[in-house]
Write a structure and sequence with these properties.
Blueprint (H helix, E strand, L loop, with lengths): L2 H8 L6 H17 L5 H4 L7 E3 L6 E3 L1 H10 L12 E12 L2 E11 L9 E11 L5 E8 L3
Parallel strand pairs: 1-6
Antiparallel strand pairs: 1-2, 3-4, 4-5, 5-6
Length: 145
């Protein structure tokens, strides 16, 4: 086998919109249910995971820090009924081979009131495939307007 052939064989298949959408849908479901158990299906479960919160300073590194962070915001195993809703608008997806980026505007609050009166800001997700070839979020960056 030639060197160039081995490199091609080691590459994972490119990400697709069809592979990313279910993960975004699960992430939105996470916020509808506050079910801490859903994190495993959505995020990379290694120390390679990184996360910037809009609520706390600093970069979180590793899955365990992310889980603790969500637990601190009231997420529980099995879930509960949240008081507020989180939703995304103006979503833009860019695929770069084995990596994808989704950028959107997040809103957090009561969906029945004027959007300008609920918390909001930009969010960026970076997606990759894990060792089992499942699409996962490897990085998230929340910010506030």
């Amino acid at each position: 086998m030639k060197k160039s052939e081995s490199i091609i064989l080691d590459q994972k298949a490119a990400l697709t919109q069809d592979g990313i959408k279910p993960v975004i849908d699960k992430w939105l479901k996470l916020w509808e249910t506050y079910d801490l158990n859903m994190l495993d299906e959505i995020f990379l479960q290694t120390e390679d995971l990184t996360y910037f919160s809009s609520e706390k300073e600093g970069l979180m590194i590793g899955y365990q820090h992310l889980k603790l962070h969500h637990s601190g915001f009231g997420f529980v195993e099995g879930g509960k009924q949240p008081e507020k809703s989180l939703w995304l608008e103006d979503m833009e997806t860019k695929i770069y081979g084995e990596t994808a980026m989704v950028a959107a505007i997040w809103y957090f609050g009561d969906k029945n009131i004027v959007k300008d009166s609920v918390s909001n800001g930009p969010v960026t997700f970076i997606f990759i495939k894990d060792k089992q070839d499942n699409v996962k979020i490897a990085h998230t960056h929340f910010a506030n307007y």
